[in-house]
Specification:
This protein is mostly helical and 364 residues long. Helix content is 76%, strand content 2%. Keywords: Membrane, Olfaction, Receptor, Sensory transduction, Transducer, Transmembrane, Transmembrane helix.
Amino acid sequence: MAGCSWAARLQAPAALSSMHEKQTPSFEDNQSVREVKDALSISEPVRPIEQLMAGVNLTPSDPRTFILTGISGLESAHEWISIPFSISYIIGLLGNFMLLFVVGKEQTLHKPMYLLICMLALTDIAMSTFVVPKALCLFWFSLNGITVGGCLTQMFFLHTVSIMQSAILVIMAFDRYVAICSPLRYSTILTNAQIGKLGLVGLIKAVLFTLPMPLLLSRLPFCAKRIIPNTYCEHMAVAKMSCGDITVNKMYGLVITFLVIGLDLTLIALSYGLIIRAVLGISSKKAHQKALNTCIAHIFVMLMYYLPGLFSNLTHRFGQGIAPHIHIILNNLYLLVPPILNPIIYGVKTKELRDKVGKYTCRS
């Protein structure tokens, strides 16, 4: 009996060890359990920003890339929106290049007024070309990524050309004032050399006013959310992505808005006010009507240029309740419409230039 008891005690640890081995799952069992749990579990919802980034094969934390959303709220209609974009761009290019070609070929058109028209045509071509090709890539191929350097470069050239164009419109208003109010002194006040100098001053002013914008932005830290709700990089839209203090950016943008748009619009309004007063004093009814029609057409083009730009700048700061797609569409109209209208208003409506354009377009 004692031998049996001793044997039982020897077998007890072995039995316990065998039971423990049965209760402890093997590595294969653990892997199977994990696979079953993974299959039955519900994955964590993907956040909207991550979904957007996944769509373009980018990560929100990528420090070298911004994302342009296009026209927010109308993403499903991007392909349709691209049609008026591309048509407007092509018409604007054709019209402005035609003006440059005709004025360049015809020696009789080498006059201050036509040099100003050529300068305006160059800014129209540049402004739309800085934006539309990239926007079309976004609409057609969903290529909505842009590097930080590329974004700041686009912003610099776009704002520089915009301020330069404003300066040219002021010079054109002054040119019309001298031509109508002091026609006998026109050739002595405004020469080709004088127009060139005024254009250079306008370019220097544009560069000096715009240069601080990318410099101020380059010092800011940007958050993980690097999404620009627009088709191009605009100063305040980029600044709003920063996690830092953008008070200086806001103040500088506001000062430039009122210095450029406010001062230039005041000078243009003063010039055309004096022109209209002089026109109303013309005794010839035909000349009176012709001059008045020309002034109204010029004022319309200038309003199409200034009003959307002013609206865009102010809504970035004060228009929180405005739908994003309205803001973006007006932004783009200000880039697309003037390049189409300017060759018509300033070019084709001028008889001398219209005759020269007809000489080339109607040639058999």
